[in-house]
Design goal:
This protein is an alpha/beta fold and 362 residues long. The protein has 14 helices and 15 strands. β13, α10 and β14 form a beta-alpha-beta unit. α7 packs across α12. It starts with a strand and ends with a helix.
């Protein structure tokens, strides 16, 4: 099958949708399908052989973050050219309502269109303001996928038509076989965080407050942080008790991210909202890391209502500290959660998820 995938967000900045599109493309190729991905990217960016550069993206506020999107007449021309040359059996767009390539592809497509909705924010003003304008193009979609029940609700309420829920996937084997970072695991306790640490909804201030509480009684406690953000401001604002306890690793390639997750005693997801799924939780479970996470609907579903991870009230730094401390002090509980996580994440292995998506194509 010839499959065209459209990624609305710029390829060079890591994000959940980009990773989903990349992993889906590579899994489909491994299953014998022909795949081309159209994505925004900077000029000169190194893209995989299956990806086509649709041009530079523009930063705009979207879903509680700053997304880099591509739109306008030049982008439309590139989409039309890609569709014509691809002769796809099915076109699969991601975030079809985002003002970017996916919407343009829906407007210009003539064949079967499948759309995946990822975001689950109830405050997507773009959708509310443009529902009437979008509707004719949304009606061209013949197969609808949502990565979670929350994303499905957005699909039904704002875009029309129902959607089948097919979750994000994870390459379980690559995380399971990753080697820890040099010097890890280590005595004293190590907590991990991966994400845009200066984005408010990711909850880093809560984690810093919790870690400062724990540090008083744990002289060797360490926090490993990977991701994008203003490193200088972040390090300058750390409380004195954490200055020597935080290792800021920057944006890590996939193998090193897996190694980080194999190096920690507990993974922490202190997010405060705007999450439709929680791919990083799957990655942590695949690596065998027990999890403490905010009790967001999306996280609760991934963690099987707390069976595969500890859930704490959203925005409660004291509860976060108590949960982290409890796990750091209880190796047996950590092992039990890691085993439960391994059972849960098996259902999200990419070959399993990709076959469900192919069934929608067919």
């Amino acid at each position: 099958m010839r499959v065209g995938l459209v990624c609305p967000y710029t390829w060079d900045i890591p994000g959940g949708v980009q990773f989903h599109v990349r992993d889906l493309a590579e899994t489909l190729i491994s299953l014998g399908h022909e795949v081309s991905v159209l994505t925004p990217a900077e000029d000169g960016d190194a893209l995989p052989a299956y990806a086509v550069n649709a041009g530079r993206a523009v930063a705009i506020p979207y879903n509680g973050a700053v997304a880099r999107l591509r739109f306008g007449p030049v982008a439309a021309t590139r989409v039309r050219r890609w569709l014509r040359s691809g002769e796809f059996d099915v076109l699969h767009v991601h975030e079809p309502a985002a003002p970017s390539l996916s919407l343009l592809a829906c407007m210009l497509a003539s064949g079967p269109v499948v759309a995946t909705v990822h975001a689950a924010s109830t405050r997507l003003f773009w959708l509310a303001a443009s529902q009437g304008v979008l509707q004719p193009f949304m009606e061209r979609i013949s197969g609808r996928i949502a990565v979670s029940d929350l994303a499905r609700r957005q699909q039904v309420e704002h875009l029309g038509g129902d959607a089948v829920v097919i979750p994000n996937g994870v390459d379980v084997a690559s995380y399971r076989r990753a080697a820890p970072l040099p010097g890890y695991p280590r005595e004293g306790g190590t907590v991990g965080f991966i994400g845009r640490y200066d984005e408010p909804r990711k909850g880093m201030p809560l984690l810093i407050e919790a870690m400062a509480t724990l540090a008083a009684d744990r002289p060797d406690l360490t926090l490993l942080v990977a991701g994008r953000g203003d490193a200088e401001d972040f390090l300058d604002e750390l409380p004195a008790v954490l200055r020597s306890r935080v290792r800021l690793l920057g944006v890590l390639p996939e193998p090193e991210k897996a190694s980080l997750l194999r190096s920690i005693d507990v993974y922490c997801a202190p997010n405060t909202g705007g999450e439709s799924f929680g791919v990083i939780l799957l990655e942590a479970m695949a690596a065998g890391a027990p999890i403490v996470a905010s009790d967001l609907d999306a996280f609760s579903r991934v963690l099987d209502d707390g069976r595969a991870g500890v859930l704490v009230p959203v925005g409660d730094a004291a509860a976060l500290a108590a949960a982290l401390g409890g796990l750091l002090d209880d190796p047996a509980r950590r092992a039990s959660l890691a085993q439960a996580g391994a059972e849960v994440v098996a259902e999200y292995d990419w070959p399993v998820v990709a076959q469900q998506i192919v069934a929608v194509y067919e």
